[in-house]
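2.7 Reproducibility. Because tokenized structures are sensitive to small changes in the input, we list the exact sequence used for Roadblock/LAMTOR2 domain-containing protein, including any N-terminal residues retained from the expression construct. No trimming or masking was applied before prediction.
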Amino acid sequence: MRLGQKEKLFLDLMRNFIEAINGIEAIWMYDREGLLISKYARAELSKDGLNEYEREEIYGAFASIFDPLLKKINSEYKIGELGSITFETQDHHIIFIEAGPKAIVLIITMYDLEISSILPYCYLFVEKVVQIIEESFDLKYNTLMIPKLIIGDS
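Resulting structure tokens (single pass, no recycling of outputs):
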């Protein structure tokens, strides 16, 4: 799979994910060295959403701290795997999810979005990212759409 094909799959998948889950503001994918693989943000944002400047400001902040943060986590905790981590800010939730051994996905959501209700969708999204990275994703057997999940009694 060529790099251009992967980028198109990533962009289509990220767009579908943001459109399927109301309240997700932006997604960034990094490799393990902290280099940006791809990014996508909601085009039309609510009055409380991030504007283009804020998205780029957040991206710049994460880009500058991502590599040292990953090195610190790996050296202090002697782990090769990140798993998932969530942070809260005054206005947003920030979700880091490991995408296999080669990448990490960063998802920014609105603060009022309940994290426990979207984590299953986040993990499904990241699994599709891993398959694209590993070149095991096949559109004959899989889709870039994010299905509606029936979780619990809802």
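The chain has one domain: 3-133.
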